[in-house]
Write a structure and sequence with these properties.
3 domains; globular; 24 strands; 6-stranded antiparallel beta sheet; Alpha-Beta Plaits; Jelly Rolls; 4-stranded antiparallel beta sheet; binds iron/sulfur cluster
């Protein structure tokens, strides 16, 4: 078989929109008040501002009532509203607009069976024409195909609407934190927006410190308002009181965005080295001036002193409260509110501090004891693991996983049915091997965990590696992957690699200029599109392999002890 020659893919081969943004719209977007601090001279010759905007931004034209983004969906783009007005709705119950939710990539049963039988003997066979992108706003081009709400009045009546006016920017929370959208955006009138994908925003901020500062300020102010409003714990608090408490609260950013750098190196150091490198946000014994609400970020470790070292008690997730019992008990007993445990930031950690007085007078009387108990229980469930296991999972940052592949070596017979099933589902190319990090009888395989904070996305120059909008699964778009390997370096779990590729006929694909093989990134895609879910887990005859969401540690405890 002779090699197929193609031009080596580059960053801007595929613009964000169907076509590059026109010069007229590049200019219009840059004139908006939220963007007018950007100056072309600040950009290097290899990355001209106009080219960046042409390729990393796209125009969206929406009609009144069209949904732009939906709360809970994943997306890492920001929107610059050029004309019209948007309504921002935070929906505490998370129901609005979900009747429209659909996953367009789901295969039928027949399609799935056909895929299982497509069992080629060639390595990493790829279509080099069809992108799998499902990211950003709700449709690629907007216009009439954009999802529209059936009953806007009902929608607006149930949320807490706020306006975004022409000239403003929105969407920065999900973009900066690689998290789900925190609010739904709907066009209050006909609108024109320029949507800029993460790669463009990252470079705009890199060369325009003023823009970075503006976006971070937006993040602080909106993060504070939206995230407290959307927390179900506060859903019974009257809106007026909640708004007053939000106004009185302060927003804090802790930790380190580049937490993945050096992690593997530290792991080889002495015991306790990893937790010692985490930022201490609160030390046990500190006087608490308010209740901390974990707003966003990867996780925080809760510890207590055990001699000179720190003992891990558990970890937090967004929506958790820290210091609640101390504040309530101190009010009841008239004693100072001293933190009983320490809080350490793993990765980035965004907190809101509701001052004690505001909390006790405006919020505490309306909190539902049952909801608080549920939260306490879910947080302490991780304490049902052995201390060594809990330390291992937190130190290794396995708790970042929403679908970590764990293998119980006491049950595993080494039959490799899991690897074979993965290979069958992926054209004979397994996306993992049965190896990884081990503690006692538990093996954490080097298979993509579809992280809460997928740091592999940060440096990708094209946006090829991204989260699907509706499921949050981290996938790689073959068409836009240029094989640079930045994601491979960034993943601290050794879960991605680059591979040479072949076309559908089995021919090696090479660079037309140099003859060198073209490579693309590859990793577990959670068998996206398979109705039965991950093939590895389904294939195991001994229930030895499980995909665990560390947002729900109870599932791990149940499985391990089951
Ligand atoms: S590739 Fe690595 S960092 Fe990215 S989601 Fe998967 S495990 Fe997490
Ligand atoms: S190799 Fe990774 S970082 Fe580079 S383009 Fe492909 S997905 Fe993005
Ligand atoms: S299928 Fe199950 S028992 Fe067989 S190797 Fe995989 S995890 Fe082990």
């Amino acid at each position: 078989m002779s090699p197929v020659e193609i031009e080596r893919p580059r960053r801007w081969d595929q613009p964000f929109g169907d076509r590059p943004l026109s010069d007229e719209w590049v200019e219009k977007a840059l004139q908006q008040p939220s963007m007018n601090c950007i100056v072309p001279e600040a950009f290097p010759a290899r990355l001209p501002l106009a080219d960046l905007m042409r390729h990393d931004a796209r125009l969206i034209e929406a009609r009144e009532g069209n949904l732009i983004v939906r709360q809970g969906d994943y997306g890492d783009s920001v929107f610059v509203l050029c004309t019209g007005r948007l309504l921002v709705v935070v929906d505490p119950e998370g129901e609005l607009g979900y009747r429209h939710k659909q996953d367009s990539r789901k295969l039928s049963w027949l399609g799935a069976i056909a895929q299982l039988w497509r069992n080629s003997s060639f390595a990493e066979k790829r279509s080099i024409a069809d992108p799998i992108s499902e990211t950003g706003s709700l449709t690629k081009d907007g216009g009439d195909s954009r999802i529209s709400l059936d009953d806007r009045k009902e929608f607006i009546g149930r949320g807490l609407p706020a306006d975004i006016q022409a000239g403003e920017m929105v969407g920065e929370i999900a973009a900066l934190r690689r998290s789900a959208r925190t609010a739904t955006l709907v066009a209050a009138e006909d609108c024109q927006l320029v949507e800029i994908r993460w790669q463009g925003i990252r470079d705009l901020m890199r060369f325009t410190p003023d823009l970075k500062h503006r976006i971070e300020e937006l993040f602080r102010s909106r993060g504070r308002a939206h995230l407290i409003e959307q927390s179900p714990i506060f859903s019974d608090v009257p809106e007026k009181l909640l708004t007053a408490a939000v106004k009185a609260s302060r927003f804090e950013i802790h930790g380190n965005e580049a937490w993945n750098k050096g992690l593997r190196k530290w792991m080889g150091d002495d015991e306790g080295t990893v937790s010692a490198r985490e930022e201490t946000v609160i030390e046990a014994g500190d006087l608490l001036d308010g209740v901390r609400v974990i707003v966003s970020g990867f996780a925080a470790r809760i510890t207590i002193a055990a001699g000179p070292a720190q003992q891990t008690l558990g970890y937090t997730r967004p929506g958790d409260l820290f210091g609640l019992d101390e504040i309530i008990d101190s009010a009841a007993n008239g004693t100072p509110a001293l933190a009983r445990t320490s809080l350490r930031a793993i990765g980035t950690l965004d907190l809101m501090v509701i001052p004690t007085d505001n909390f006790l007078t405006q919020i505490a009387p309306y909190l539902d004891e049952k909801k608080l108990d549920e939260q306490r229980i879910s947080r302490t469930w991780s304490g049902n693991l052995s201390q060594g296991m809990l330390d291992f999972l937190v130190d290794q940052r396995t708790i970042n996983g929403t679908s970590a592949m764990l293998i119980d070596l006491d049950r595993c017979t080494g039959c490799d049915d899991c690897v074979k099933a993965c290979a069958v589902t992926h054209d004979n190319n397994p996306r993992f091997l049965r190896r990884g990090y081990r503690h006692a009888h538990l093996l954490v395989a080097n298979a993509c965990m579809h992280c809460v904070d997928p740091v592999c996305l940060v440096g990708c120059p094209t946006g090829a590696i991204h989260r699907t909008r509706t499921t949050g699964v981290v996938v790689i778009d073959d068409l836009t992957c240029i094989g640079c390997g930045v994601c491979v370096e960034a993943c601290p779990y050794d879960s991605i690699r680059t591979v040479e590729i072949r076309d559908q006929g089995g021919n090696l694909v090479v660079d037309a200029k140099t003859g060198a093989p073209i490579v693309k990134a590859t990793k577990c895609d959670l068998c996206l599109g398979q109705p039965a879910g991950p093939a590895c887990q389904n294939a195991c005859p001994h229930d030895a392999l499980n995909r665990i969401d560390f947002g729900n540690p109870r599932s791990l405890v149940d499985w391990i002890s089951g």
